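In practice, a research group might receive sequence data for several interacting partners and want a quick structural hypothesis before committing to experiments. The following worked case mirrors that situation: the sequences arrive first, and a predicted assembly follows.
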Amino acid sequence: MDELERIREEIDLDRRRFVKKVLGGVIGGSLLLVLPAGAVKVAQQISGLAAGTDPVDPDRKFAFVIDITGCIGCGYCCVADKNEFQVPDGYYRTWVERYVIDDQDNVHVDAPRGGLDGYATARLDIPHPVRDTFFVPKLCNMCEKPSCVQVCPVGATFRTADGFVLIDRQRCLGCSYCVQACPYSVRFIGPESRVAEKCTWCYHRLAQGLRPACVEACPVQARKFGDLNDRESEVYRLLHEPNVISVLKPEMGNEPSLHYLGLRREVV
Amino acid sequence: MPLILASAASAAGYVFPNDLHVYWGLMIVLYPYITGIVAGAFIVSSLYHVFHVQSLRPVAQFSLLFALAFLVCAALPLLVHLGQPGRALSMFLTPNPSSAMAGFGYFYLAYAALLVLEIFFIYRPVLVLRQQAATGGRRLFYGVLAVGSDNLSAEALAMDRRIVGVLAGLGIPMACVLHGYVGFIFGGIKANPLWATPLMPVIFLLSACVSGIAGVIVAYVVLSKMTGRQPDRACLRTALRFLWGFFLVTFALEMLEIFSQAYMATSHWQTLRSLLWGPLFNSYWVWQVTVFSVIPLALLGYLSLQRVSATVFRVLAPLAAVMALLQVFLMRWNVVIGGQLISRSGRGAVYYDPGWLDREGILLSAVILLLPVAVLYGLGRILPLWPDAGEVSEGAPATGSLNLSSVESVKQDSGEEFA
Amino acid sequence: MQPDFKSSTHLHVIRLALTIAGVLVAGILLRQALLPAGYGTSGRYRPGAELDEANRTVRNLANDACLACHPLIRKLHLAGTHATVSCEICHGPGVDHVQDGKLAGAMPTVAGDVIGPVCLRCHGQVARLRPLDSIRMVSASDHLTGHRVRADNDCDQCHHVHAPMKWVREAREMVGLAAEPEGGRPWTN
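A structural hypothesis for the assembly, expressed as tokens:
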């Protein structure tokens, strides 16, 4: 109760300072600012999963959907990911690419530091007027036919019954054959662990009923995660409505479970 | 302390953030190079033992020991490369049948066993005679190597000969599998447009023959010089012809691959072109194709088709063989390293320079590449590298495989050591 | 037949065959002994490998966990336009703050002159990269001058970080202006 009082007083103090500023004319113009209409969506939890439940459940078919039209390139997903897995510098479990298309149809792509620092500044090296820009977050595609599992010589990378491609860190040789085989370049050999590492769609969070860290961190819900066998889930709806939706490099035949809403032909 | 597993000097264009690292470095260049030499040297021996190319007799035994020396060292670069070398035995424990890499352990062991057996049956008379001539520890050593048998009866030797024939015959498909499969490790990676071609195992196998034959030629000439012998001219000529033939086919397939890609001009060609005219231009077009393919091919053609003087032959033959060896090394480099310089983004490339002191650096690679020479020296202390001094002279009539008369002459100079 | 050989004709072949057979048997037995328990029962991987992955430490605890202990922040945060913003992207992973139900360390706060870049990662307009209808975007300097505010103002002087429009709305009520136009208005830059 004391703590609550203290916070309340603090907020009141803030308000008094603020009122002073308003009355002093410092922030007068702010009153012309207009607010957006409409309620903000509240994040949905993954139902039925909690600590103690068996993480492998073949009745679930998880899918990841990334809304390219929604991503604002803040890079906070990458920050959350780096915090969650303490990813070493220079290696990326997930990253966000920036696509800039100029009016000569040249495509300029970059991802400095994998987008960890966001994209607060414009690219200055583009010679023509910019016609279009967008961001593309990348992470493990959780293929139904994963090349990495195919090539792992010792079965240290494997696909679980519910479709997660995971790495057995106790048995990985660090031969990096899987790194070579992944068409999406989501794997790396950890400089400290010296075994293969990659995005797991936060398998460990899921086991606690939590959504993947990057999904949780996305302020605009451009990253969506859910169970395709749950007809109420957003991913089910998105994948079954007539949306512009596709996967990366379909010609590889890996059948990713990672889908992109509004995927553009420039994206590789 | 983190070990430097990979390093990339710089990148051009857009490279996926994880593609900046070149994980397969010089060690993975060495590994197919060394196994290639093993397979190729074995083919030389089989040309004599199976296909009865009599003029290759002077190097028929040597090429087996040469192959063994390299085989002993073939797994070393892999162990150096592995992030967790202590877990290497998992390859035997839980081989994943869908992995092109998983069979390596078993193939390697089986091939090593075959090679050792063939060497045993060929050298058994020598082992027995050396045991009988020696005393003490040396006697015991050769006794163990001869598995305690002293029977050199005509019947036993005839049986040995038949077994050698079977082993040498079996060895050909096994050498092809051992090395063709190394090619498939790369050829089966669909994510990499430079690697993903069904021609890859074939090119690897043929260039393995090139490096093996060339390696045997170079070693034969150098060791003959060192021991004051005259290398057998007929044998060298035959070996050079085979080298020329294998080299021609290899080079033709290498060019066919690039030409087909260029002609079909799929989206992959865009990527390949940016690689071959980008980071790989010098090592591929200048060194592999022009300097170390066109020139040695011309030299080999000249040596094979024209009658040349002994002096010219003495200079040009080993030169062409050395160049062929370097071509194969460059080919391995351009495939293994080159494939990793293109990003799967299809929009950029990485430039790579191996460090000198990295785990996969130049220094350690040189040591590993020289190690088979040391092993060969050790083998030469145990077994004679050449059939015998008397028969390895120019124009000597080729005889069949080991018979008692040659065993006798082996007995006479069994005290002689290599080098 | 030479009678002076001590060994029989086939001795070496028999010994070699026995050696090879022995090595094979030893290899098979050794493999059985070293194979991870239950290997292959659930696929070609070590059973329990997926549990190892599932037992990884959760480091980002998610907003519900944070707000459970911070009721007033909860009230502010969920009522505002920043309701979807993750606590942990500004304050760091929750595991550094609470471990085993106990306070493990203080969380960093972002305020004052370091807050600008943090806000602008989402709201910055300078890069002109975002879909216009997804989020309110500003150019920091235009925003400040446009609202006739001192150019060195920090974002959190007008905007409460958890409820960005709270004070603005209150100030508007204080001076008697309409809360906001019906149906809103397209965002202007």
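Before designing any experiment, note the following. The first strand of chain A starts at residue 62 and ends at 67. Chain A has two domains: 2-32, 36-268.
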